[in-house]
Amino acid sequence: MKNFKKEYYANKAWGLLTSVDLYNCDPQIIRDAEAIKRYVKELCELIEMKQFGDTQVVHFGEDERVAGFSMVQLIETSLISGHFANSTNNAYIDIFSCKYYEPSVAAEFTKKFFEAKEVKMHYILRG
């Protein structure tokens, strides 16, 4: 298993971006604005990030190919964002923070919450 924390501190990273791509999520969950807000709250508790303001969840639907909810949550150390695609039941979540958190923990929690069949995680050290 990759030691993200060691790499983060060894590189003196300013921040960490984790992108979580979810495939074949439970359609009822990704179409439920309150569930998405609950996900953000629980994720922030898990990775010890402090929410700043309310979670914004807005449905966009002009182009059916990409129609679905988009979410943004400011956190004191940056932000969490995501888009949920109704046509494919896929979701794309980005977690960026200048405070370290464990990317694999965030990705696994995200997969379980949205009941995704598959997950791909990418991370980038910033700075």
Automatic annotation (TrEMBL):
Cofactor: pyruvate
InterPro entries: AdoMetDC_fam_prok, S-AdoMet_deCO2ase_core
Pfam families to which the protein is assigned, alphabetical: AdoMet_dc
Keyword tags: Autocatalytic cleavage, Decarboxylase, Lyase, Polyamine biosynthesis, Pyruvate, Schiff base, Spermidine biosynthesis, Zymogen
GO cellular component, one term: cytosol
GO molecular function terms listed in the Swiss-Prot or TrEMBL record: adenosylmethionine decarboxylase activity
Domain of life: Bacteria
UniProt record, GO biological process: spermidine biosynthetic process
The name this protein goes by in its record: S-adenosylmethionine decarboxylase
Originating species: Candidatus Sediminicultor quintus
